[in-house]
Amino acid sequence: MTRPSLKPGFSTVDPRTGTRMRLVEGNDEQDGMGWVLEVECPAGVASSIKAHLHTSWTETFEILHGSARFVLDGREGAIEKGESIVVPPGHTHVHPWNAGDGMMQYRQTNRFDRRDLDAVDDVLGTFATINGLAREGKVRGDGLPRNPLQFAATIRTLVKHEGFDATVPVWLQRVLAATLGRLAEALGYRAVDPKFIAT
User: Whose CA is closest to 106, among 114, 94, 98?
Assistant: First the structure.
């Protein structure tokens, strides 16, 4: 099955938190140098994405509505409507989560250090696949795939785009991606399942 290319308007919802992510600008609009998302976060839930870092991307989060908390380099902070935070490459962070009573919305702009035409489809497609697996009861308590081979394929794709879990040494994630991740792909496992990103 051919994997569809993600276009503005594509959205996915994390069924564990109710967080909705919608693509506003992708490859065509950003010339393969990044993306722009708008994310809606219900009150009373944690960030849908664990602490992580990017070695080659800059992420900017601008609060469009409501108030939020975030973590940058282990320190928690607050941010309000109209304010932004910038996360340079190599800095551990947790995406903003809702600190108020109503819906909180932010704009997330990712800027790459080089052109990467696969990143939008691979990374956002991976998030959509994890959300689909969650709807099917196939993720662990931390939101990652239960199946070790599916997990390995997921890690391989995120590592390909220099995204790393903040709790595991980067070198170890590279080794797992190159070994178990490669095996998982050889056995037919993919981080992006087209059935979860059909547009």
Answer: 98
The DSSP string of 131-150 is: HHHHHTT-B-TTSSBSSHHH
> How many residues are recorded in the chain?
199
Is the predicted pLDDT of residue 121 greater than 70, yes or no?
yes
Mention every residue, 6+ apart, whose C-beta is less than 8 A from residue 76: 69, 70
Q: Where are the beta strands (DSSP E) in 48-138?
A: 52-54, 57-65, 67-72, 75-80, 84-87, 93-98, 104-112
pLDDT of 199 reads: 52
Report how far residue 154's alpha carbon sits from residue 159's, in angstroms, rounded to the nearest whole number: 9
The domains of the chain, with CATH numbers, are 11-112 (2.60.120.10), 119-196 (no CATH)
